[in-house]
């Protein structure tokens, strides 16, 4: 004897469709808001990106020495900046000085690799730095390349001044001057617990691919 499964009546089917549609809209709206806040973060941040010559122990140590020297001798440029525009103007004017500092530090350790510093607009993956996270996408950045620039990189945030030694305020206070409360919550969250970070990174990578 053939048994037929229970068939939902039209009213029940409509109710289920309505519930799933409503949930989908909520999820889409939440992601759209999150993505928009991530875009605002990217538009208000200046990053520092240093690429080592190679992944050898020596080259990686040199990269960190160059990093420390650059941050030490240019800290006031970015800590005293009151806007991204001002920070970028100071960065552009200081590129020759940044190159000079990096070369001098390398020569001090017996390395004559070439150094190039530029202000650029470049793609970053989702990155975690100490107590804050930067969502994936394109950022303005001071990019310093050493030699062949084929080694692992180091990055931080120059504006707001989150990695500047002279900053007397903590990172939370620096963020508060620049980002909204919602944007600060994103930056201060942990991406391993935040699925939307991965969704934004995937979305930005697709955009970058077609670009």
Automatic annotation (TrEMBL):
Name of encoding gene: spoIIR
The organism's place on the tree of life at top rank: Bacteria
Pfam families tied to this protein: Spore_II_R
InterPro entries: Spore_II_R
Name this protein carries in UniProt: Stage II sporulation protein R
């Amino acid at each position: 004897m053939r048994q037929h499964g229970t068939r939902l009546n039209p009213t029940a089917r409509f109710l289920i469709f309505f519930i799933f549609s409503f949930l989908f809209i909520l999820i889409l709206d939440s992601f759209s808001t999150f993505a928009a806040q991530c875009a605002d973060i990217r538009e208000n941040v200046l990053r520092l990106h240093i690429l080592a010559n190679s992944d050898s122990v020596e080259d990686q140590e040199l990269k960190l020495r160059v990093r420390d020297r650059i941050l030490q001798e240019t800290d006031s440029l970015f800590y005293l900046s009151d806007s991204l525009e001002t920070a970028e103007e100071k960065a552009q004017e200081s590129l020759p000085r940044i190159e000079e500092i990096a070369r001098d530090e390398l020569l001090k350790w017996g390395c004559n690799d070439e150094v190039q510093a530029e202000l650029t607009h470049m793609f970053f993956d989702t990155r975690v730095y100490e107590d804050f996270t930067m969502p994936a996408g394109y950022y303005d950045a001071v990019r310093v390349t050493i030699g062949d620039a084929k080694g692992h990189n180091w990055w931080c945030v120059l504006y707001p001044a989150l990695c500047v030694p002279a900053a007397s305020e903590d990172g939370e206070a620096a963020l508060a001057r620049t980002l909204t409360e919602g944007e600060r919550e994103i930056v201060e969250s942990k991406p391993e617990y935040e699925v939307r970070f991965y969704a934004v990174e995937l979305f930005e990578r697709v955009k970058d691919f077609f670009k």
